[in-house]
Amino acid sequence: MSGTPAWGARALLLLAVLTVVFATKRESAIAAGEHQPASLRACRVCHDLSSEKKSQGFIGPPLWGVANRSIGSENSFAGYSETLVSMGAHGKIWDRRTLERYLADPRMFAPGCRMAFTGIADEKSRMQAVDYLFSMQD
Hints:
Strand content: under 5%
Number of helices: 6
Helix content: 40-55%
CATH topology: Cytochrome Bc1 Complex, Chain D, domain 2
Domain Cytochrome c: 28-137
Low-confidence stretches: 22-32
Protein name: Cytochrome c, class I
Organism: Magnetococcus marinus (strain ATCC BAA-1437 / JCM 17883 / MC-1)
Number of domains: 1
InterPro entries: Cyt_c-like_dom, Cyt_c-like_dom_sf, Cyt_c_1A/1B
Keywords: Electron transport, Heme, Iron, Metal-binding, Transport
């Protein structure tokens, strides 16, 4: 029985290492677009999807961590429309319902929106995109 605590400690250590490895692989897979819904792939043209949250070199704000973030508030991006900035100033956040409505028709949701993307018409595809955006968090 005296060997049991050592085995248990090794098992916990192994679990900790695997957790770190899989978390790192998950972030890398998200940033690389693996397992990304087809409906969200077009976003990569204008938005950074990595945890680095880059704005330089992109015409849209980074999308990592967008879930439950105040609308129009990503500090590294200065190109938000007045409509989106106003929504955020009035306490609106990118929750699931708001993202779903925005991705359905960005210009209808936020008149004056600068995003050229016209939206995701298919509800199932739109919800997959929202789910994926919610998975992109630290």
